[in-house]
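Appendix B, Record 12. Input sequence as logged:
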Amino acid sequence: MMVGDSVTSGTSDFIRETFPNGYIDGKPNRQMPEAEGIYRTDVAAGHQGSVVIFGLGTNGIIENEQEVQKLIDTTGGKPTFFVTIRMPYPWQETNNNKMLRAAAAKNPNVGIIDWHGYSEGHSEYFGEDGIHPGITGAEAYATMLRQAICGR
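Logged structural output:
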């Protein structure tokens, strides 16, 4: 199960190909504080992913680790992953990735999937805005998720 923002929604076709039994809930302009309620609604609707991925952070500053911790707590101990972000706003990118990593480091069931590192040096992955993946980037994004979750 994946809950995310426009990066998730824009890559969802490729993610679905990679994880045909997965549930992908991505929506443009989604912010971190909204994700807890969205996750709960998705679970109540029967989407019980054995692994949870959150792809959030491109639509605003993550104010503190507690925002991230709330999502971790909501998953009830399931393996949970946060995808780092890449964007042309270094202050937001650095802050949000730092918050995701710090919260993950405090929880043994939580990992980081490093889109920021994976996409380093690959401008061809992105559209003009430097945030949203194009076709090549969407394929790379789905591949990165598969490698992180499946180990291959």
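The radius of gyration is 14 Å.
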